[in-house]
TrEMBL record:
This is Glycerol-3-phosphate acyltransferase. The chain crosses the membrane at residues 12-31, 60-82, 88-107, 119-142, 162-181. It is an enzyme of class 2 (transferase). Probably interacts with PlsX. Pathway: Lipid metabolism; phospholipid metabolism. The keyword Transmembrane helix applies. GO terms for molecular function: acyl-phosphate glycerol-3-phosphate acyltransferase activity. InterPro entries: G3P_acylTferase_PlsY (IPR003811). The gene is plsY. It is found in: Cell membrane. NCBIfam families: glycerol-3-phosphate 1-O-acyltransferase PlsY. It catalyses: an acyl phosphate + sn-glycerol 3-phosphate = a 1-acyl-sn-glycero-3-phosphate + phosphate. The lineage of its organism: Bacteria, Pseudomonadati, Pseudomonadota, Alphaproteobacteria, Rhodobacterales.
């Protein structure tokens, strides 16, 4: 029993760590440092790289993308190194949760695409590479960042067993479900034909 309790405590610690790091918003930090204004009043009002791009500052958008992907990857790598695979997957989920519902921003966060991709790269780089490739192809064909994210996230639970990562399927389903939830407004706009394309400022 003490061993089990200790293991649960360790997992809870990494879950908390993942959430707190995930809650740090790259977009808000970059916007403040580069004097881009309040992201909540720009474009979609989102704090992610796609909305940062709507400021017209491609460098800021790139830095935001790397930051948000990097925090997900770092959380996974640290948790795995110090506590193993279970801790890595739990920390991955809570980091994603933290990005979507950050404690530092009143639980009003981003949609998690960059963090999602960073998590996959750190957990198993082939899954991250495939997810990024799917996103890139769909984005290039349609210019809809949201649709690219939805297709990529929806495909990964199916593709992971084919890539040899059956141990990640449950996490992939949970992340995809949360990502779809966060993109519900985008889904409605895609259906209505009113969704903004990559590079537009509205």
């Amino acid at each position: 029993m003490p061993v089990i309790e200790n293991s649960m405590a360790i997992l809870a610690l990494w879950a908390s760590f993942g959430y707190l790091i995930g809650s740090v918003s790259g977009g808000m930090i970059v916007a403040r440092l580069m004097n881009l204004g309040n992201l909540r009043e720009i474009g979609s009002g989102n704090i992610g790289a796609t909305n940062v791009l709507r400021t017209g500052n491609k460098k800021a958008a790139a830095v935001t993308l790397v930051f948000d992907a990097g925090k997900g990857a770092v959380v996974v790598l640290l948790a795995r190194a110090f506590a193993g695979e279970d801790a890595a997957q739990i920390a991955a989920f809570t980091a994603f949760l933290g990005h979507c519902f950050p404690v530092w921003l009143g639980f009003k966060g981003g949609k998690g695409v960059a963090t999602y991709l960073g998590i996959l790269w750190a957990l198993a780089w082939p899954t991250g590479a495939v997810a990024c490739l799917i996103w890139l192809v769909v984005a290039l064909l349609t210019r809809f960042s949201s649709l690219a994210a939805l297709v990529s996230a929806g495909a990964m639970p199916v593709l992971m067993p084919l890539l040899g990562y059956t141990n990640m399927v449950t996490l992939a389903v949970l992340l995809a479900a949360l990502l779809y939830w966060r993109h519900w407004g985008n889904i409605q706009r895609l259906r209505a034909g009113t969704e903004s394309k990559i590079g537009t400022k509205s």
